[in-house]
Amino acid sequence: MTRRQTPNIIITGTPGCGKSSHSQSLVSQLNQDFAKDTTISFKHFNISEIAKERDCIESYDAKLDTSVVDEDKLLDSLEPDLEKGGVIVDWHCCDIFPERLIDLVVVLRTDNSNLYDRLKTRNYNDLKLQENLDCEIMEVILQEARDSYIPDIVVELRSDSAEEMDENVERISSWVIKWIEDHPNGVSNELEKQYHDDDSEEEDSNEEDEYELEQEEQEEEEEREAAEEETNEEMEHTEDIAQ
Predict the structure, then answer these.
(1) Mean pLDDT across the chain, nearest whole number?
(2) Is 20 annotated as a binding residue?
(3) In the predicted model, what is the mean pLDDT of residues 103-119?
(4) In terms of C-beta density within 10 A (0-12 exposed, 13-18 middle, 19 or more buried), how is residue 155 classed?
(5) Is 19 annotated to bind ligand?
(6) Was 122 annotated as part of a binding site?
(7) Is pLDDT larger for residue 77 or for residue 193?
(8) 193 annotated as a binding-site residue
């Protein structure tokens, strides 16, 4: 059973929201933060490029001027990388990745006026541009993330300026540092095992609570016995005086 020592993070959102810029900046920051630890490193996986490099394109959509990815083949290709950990996944789609291999999902949100300008500079055709604007308005990707992963690991961040990107990268970097501190032995790549580990921690906590409760009850019992003994002694003393 394999374990990963560093977290995998998905940075997702509508095209034009700044996924690649965030991912590149984050990887640079993290590798700088852990420069002294040769066992820790992070990699940026731009899935659009990875899909082409690993021959995972199954067709082409002429209307939307975009490639259609063979998701099963892509996942088979990516799974060994994800099991090693330290992968920053950069893609507009997030719900295809196994929950057991993902530790944080960052959904970037952008104001539609900014998004329109960014997509225009990419020369998106009218149909493709409108579809992406509608996707952002309807919060499609955010909802996909919430439907696919536990709420605790899904984070929504604004991405309308360079300043916000810097703040986001700093925030995610701090989260990664804390994650590594909290998981000195890494985490299992099996979802069932992860849940078992969580259950074990909860059981340990419950056992500690039960032990503390038993200790408190024992102390209270000893106090009651001591009080009764003291009362009996006082009564005996009173009887002696009366006699």
Answers:
(1) 88
(2) yes
(3) 96
(4) middle
(5) yes
(6) yes
(7) 77
(8) no
Q: Concatenate the DSSP letters of all residues of the chain into one string.
A: --EESS--EEEE-STTSSHHHHHHHHHHHHHHHTTT-TT---EEEEHHHHHHHTT-EEEEETTTTEEEE-HHHHHHHHHHHHHH--EEEE-S--TTS-GGG-SEEEEEE--HHHHHHHHHHTT--HHHHHHHHHHHHTTHHHHHHHHHS-GGGEEEEE-SSHHHHHHHHHHHHHHHHHHHHH-TT-EESSHHHHHHHHHHHHHHHHHHHHHHHHHHHHHHHHHHHHHHHHHHHHHHHHHHHH-
Tell me the whole-structure pTM to 2 decimals.
0.78
Contact in structure between 105 and 88 (CB atoms under 8 Å): no
Structure token digits, residue 200: 């074990």
| Residues 172-185 pLDDT 10s | 999 999 999 999 99
- Cβ(112)–Cβ(14) below 8 Å: no
In angstroms, the CA 222 to CA 226 distance is 6
Has residue 33 got a pLDDT over 60? yes
pLDDT above 70 for 143? yes
Question: What is the percent of the chain where pLDDT is above 70?
Answer: 83
Query: The tokens of 158 are what?
Result: 């604004």
pLDDT band at 239 (very low <50, low <70, confident <90, very high): low
8 Å CB contact between 92 and 19: yes
Q: Is 4 annotated to bind ligand?
A: no
